[in-house]
Design brief:
Elements (H helix, E strand, L loop, with lengths): L6 H4 L1 H6 L2 H11 L6 E3 L7 E4 L6 E8 L6 E7 L2 E8 L5 H10 L3 H7 L16 H17 L4 H12 L1 H4 L2 E5 L2 E5 L12 E3 L7 E4 L6 E5 L2 H11 L2 H7 L8
Antiparallel strand pairs: 1-2, 2-3, 3-4, 4-5, 6-7, 8-9, 9-10
């Protein structure tokens, strides 16, 4: 295993300012802006926190990589990741930080960014469960589209096409797809977990992740048909309270 470089060696320009927050402030000043940044005392050269005027935006920070000169931006809203991305150019960050801090929309922040940043989720300020579920489906569809895994994309697309499943909260564990009637942990008891094949192979249907195989089928459509048949009656009743999921 390669030894981790001293951050002062990997980031000498940051070290010259004393902290990542100060280096970002200096870069922002060069771009005629000021940023609400705070130093992280445990790792000041590689970590800086961001505050926002939007109350549901929190846990936003810039983090420097340990073995390569690069920075990541992470921003959460109501405990769900909204934006994340990485850049090798410190100059790219002030505009994105300002947008997040000053309450710009996710679309506006994404348009201002010079690197891929948006997760696909949309913000739900009031944490309404139906909208959180719709936001998670939007993220899952984008994630599957970028996964370079056709069988997994077919599974997510087929699941989203089913109204009874689209009303439920989708989540994955080790790439296996499951559903809950609540977007908040603890999730409702598992009734199905679907594994996608990579290349040749079958979709495997279980009751919970890593449980015994109940069915093996060749297509995503067959797997989703089995999943729909396994939705418990109480979840069908609960999901009917989320009409926003029907569109």
């Amino acid at each position: 295993m390669s030894r981790e470089p001293d951050p002062a060696v990997l980031y000498p320009d940051v070290a010259a300012h004393g902290s990542l927050a100060a280096a970002l402030q200096a870069e922002a000043a060069a771009q005629h802006m000021s940023l609400p940044l705070a130093v992280t005392s445990s790792d000041p050269l590689r970590h800086a926190k961001i505050t926002s005027v939007v109350p549901h935006r929190h846990s936003a920070y810039i983090a420097a990589w340990h073995h390569e000169r690069k920075w990541s931006f992470w921003g959460s809203s109501n405990d769900r990741l909204m934006i994340c991305g990485g850049t090798k150019n410190l100059r790219d960050l002030p505009q994105v930080i300002r947008g997040w801090a000053e309450g710009a929309s996710l679309e506006e922040i994404g348009q201002a960014a010079t690197f891929d940043l948006l997760t696909g989720r949309f913000e739900v300020p009031d944490n309404n469960p139906a909208d959180v579920i719709a936001s998670e489906w939007q993220w899952l569809l984008k994630d599957a589209d970028h996964a370079e895994w056709p069988q997994y994309w077919d599974l997510i697309e087929a699941a989203h096409a089913e109204r009874q499943l689209r009303r439920l909260y989708p989540f994955t564990s080790h790439w296996a797809l499951s559903f809950s009637n609540t977007p908040d942990f603890p999730f409702s008891p598992s009734f199905v977990s679907i594994d996608s094949p990579r290349g040749a192979g079958d979709y495997i249907i279980r009751e919970w992740w890593n449980g015994p195989a109940l069915h093996q089928v060749t297509t995503a459509a067959e797997a989703i048909a089995i999943a729909v048949g396994r939705v418990p009656a109480d979840l069908l009743h609960a999901s009917s309270r989320h009409p926003a999921q029907d569109s």
